Amino acid sequence: MYRTCGVSYFPMKPMNHSDIFDLSNCTLCPRNCHADRLAGNTGFCRETAEIRGARAALLAWEEPCLTGTKGSGAVFFSGCNLGCVFCQNYCLASSQAGRPLSPERLADIFLSLESEGAANINLVTPAHFSPLLVPVLEEAKKRGLRIPVVYNTGSYEKAEAIRRLDGLIDIYLPDLKYVSDELAVRYSRAPRYFAFASAAIREMVRQCPEPCFSDGSHALDAPEGEETPLMLRGVIVRHLALPGQQNDSRAVLRYLHETYGDKIFISIMSQYTPMSQVQGDPLLSRRLTEEEYDALTDYAVELGIDNGFLQEGETASESFIPAFDGTGL
Ligand code: SF4
């Protein structure tokens, strides 16, 4: 356990309607909205086929093997295909924040973050834009982008959409929020979340079957206090522990460990922050208690999870939510 505190315009190719990358009839994610996003319409994710973002900057709060000394190069996209009532980035997910980003500008941003010393390019909530990100990544790599690309997703995705990213993503950083369908519907309006997310994660692990680090190792075994090597390739699955949902959190950890063992890292997050939209909810209007988090991390140790990240300190604070004010765009 580790403790943490000049691209040109890309026209969409004509595609048949069974192609999930066809944004004129969007079936990219399990929502299957069939929105013509190319014509400026939107579906559940509230975004058209124009990429929009709200912040691009070095971020210090990711897992240490993603943060390095200067930070992860986080690009926050507008919109989201989940509907989490407790969303920590609500103004972003609800498309209230953000500005259009041309493919050229986005490739420039990736290269500029790399020149600032970013450990990686961290695409935050990119699922609903993934077909548009493919040519941008290809172009940025052609222009010299060398650092790993991280795909940081809520995981309400189709495995086929993840398959289309094969070769472009170095590190997958998916959430696994629930095993329980009832909770997924109640808290994220996401029917069959576990079925979709677990299949998407299986495809991520197929692409990145073994973690690799900058010191040439496949495990994080640097002694405490020494600089953590950077992850170059692999899968880190995050689970945000919610207050009062110990049983489901345990089911998430058990599933991940029994299915993947040491092929993946598991990050158990305690930073749940009750936002204004959940005031009045009997469970979600409070923070996770120290006892709840300790019990969950003890359970992870009992299961035999070695490749894990725990959070310590005052991470459960709104101050860790960056400002979505257009910085870096
Ligand atoms: S990506 Fe957006 S528009 Fe497309 S199916 Fe998902 S939620 Fe609907």
Distance between the termini: 36 Å
What is the chain-wise order of helices and strands? EEHEHEHEHEHEHHEEHEHE
Structural class: alpha/beta
Name the hetero compounds present: iron/sulfur cluster
What is the approximate shape? globular
Question: How many strands, what sense, and barrel or not for the largest sheet?
Answer: 11 strands, mixed
Number of helices: 9
Strand runs, count: 11
Strand content: 15-25%
Oligomeric state, counting identical vs distinct chains: single chain
Can you describe this structure in just a few lines?
This protein is α/β, with parallel strands linked by helices and 329 residues long.
Description:
The chain is an alpha/beta fold and 329 residues long. 28% of the residues lie in helices and 16% in strands. It is built from 9 helices and 11 strands. It has helices at residues 64-67, 90-93, 103-115, 130-142, 159-163, 181-188, 193-207, 246-260, 290-303; strands spanning 2-4, 52-59, 72-77, 99-100, 121-124, 149-153, 171-174, 212-213, 231-240, 265-269, 308-311. Strands 1, 2, 3, 4, 5, 6, 7, 8, 9, 10 and 11 form an 11-stranded mixed β-sheet that branches. β6 (149-153), α5 (159-163) and β7 form a beta-alpha-beta unit. The longest helix has 15 residues, at 193-207. The chain is globular, with a radius of gyration of 19 Å. The protein starts with a strand and ends in an 18-residue tail after the last strand. The model is unreliable at 5-15 (pLDDT under 50). The structure holds iron/sulfur cluster.
